[in-house]
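re: the backbone from monday

yeah here it is again, tokenized this time
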């Protein structure tokens, strides 16, 4: 039997939908569709405007799931910031991750939700053994976890380093972006990590595969004074 949604939750949901419908931008929505970000409905609201909307509400899992269940671009993005990370079971987080089907959601959920979860290492371990999309989500989540001040255990660091080496040969923009992001994120943690990332970048540049070479070259270009 499905649990009845609280009245306050319903009211907040209606407020959010009204707000985003008033901000809709048809031209932006069309551009997003042309980029392959296909939702059942998209209002074309910018990320900064969505952050403004979400700032008016407290984290609430009931509200977040109500927003998440709709195949509307804006409600799904807003939900990423409204899940209560202190009270979200890992099983629910896995379900959410399974339904992340495009790069925009991957970036928003890794930053706003997964990077902040106390059991992130367990999720990353599972994702690293999963699909390419899950591995990419893991790298983004680790990168944002670091950028938000989180620590990185040695076993998790070793796992990430291994994935960078293995995934570098995959010639896909989605993969290249996630690898570049996590490498840049690791490089600012400490001088030791920075040196290790530079060593890895040098090894990548020894590859005969152009996309692998470019990944290493790009990192060194940004991190060499």
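seq for it, each position gets an aa:
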């Amino acid at each position: 039997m499905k649990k009845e949604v609280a009245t306050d939750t319903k009211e907040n949901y209606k407020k959010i939908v009204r707000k985003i419908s008033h901000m809709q931008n048809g031209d932006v929505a069309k551009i997003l569709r042309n980029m392959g970000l296909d939702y059942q409905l998209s209002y074309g609201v910018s990320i900064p405007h969505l952050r403004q909307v979400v700032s008016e509400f407290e984290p609430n899992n009931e509200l977040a799931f109500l927003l998440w269940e709709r195949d509307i671009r804006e409600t799904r993005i807003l939900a990423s910031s409204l899940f209560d990370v202190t009270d979200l079971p890992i099983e629910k987080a896995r379900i959410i991750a399974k339904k992340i089907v495009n790069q925009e959601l991957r970036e928003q959920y890794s930053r706003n939700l997964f990077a902040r979860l106390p059991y992130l290492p367990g999720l990353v371990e599972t994702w690293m053994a999963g699909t390419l999309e899950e591995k990419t989500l893991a790298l983004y989540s680790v990168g944002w976890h670091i950028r938000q001040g989180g620590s990185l255990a040695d076993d998790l660091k070793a796992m990430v380093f291994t994935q960078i080496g293995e995934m570098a040969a995959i010639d896909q923009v989605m993969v290249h972006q996630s690898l570049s992001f996590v490498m840049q994120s690791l490089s600012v943690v400490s001088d030791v990590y920075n040196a290790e990332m530079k060593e890895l970048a040098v090894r990548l540049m020894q590859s005969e595969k152009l996309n692998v070479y470019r990944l290493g070259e790009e990192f060194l270009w940004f991190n060499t004074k």
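The chain has a mean pLDDT of 91. Residues 7-22 form the longest helix (16 residues).
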